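Quarterly update from the structural biology core.
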Amino acid sequence: MENAMDPFAFALLTTLVSIAGAVLIIVVIVRGIAHAQNVRHEAYKEALDRGVYDPTLLKKRRTGHASLGWGLVFTAMGIGMLIGFIFLGIMSEGAPGVFITLFIGIALIAFHMIVASRSKDEVKNGEPMKLSDTVVPPRPTPDQ
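Predicted structure, tokenized:
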């Protein structure tokens, strides 16, 4: 009695699951970006309702925190692969992959540090413009 799956069916199932997973990841990323944009737009509309005109609320803020997160992930992967390959004794074969991953992580962390230091020195354009509710008195006419 054989319980093995047909190799073609297994390959087809694996391919379909991989494609579905990739599509799901893309959908989640796109929905996350759209949600962030909607949140920024709602904050802008709420500020306008309160009488504050601040166009910077619509812009995506680039703080460099994403590069720090990815830098830490790549660095951890590189260190993990380095330790694993040393223990397995295959460091000579895996060295390019290890060092590429490790240096990508280090470069992303360095990028975060540069962005963070420059954003501290960034000159602000000023405070958001407050739209006043006061009524401007009419100009006096020349005959007055």
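Helices lie at 7-49, 65-88, 91-121.
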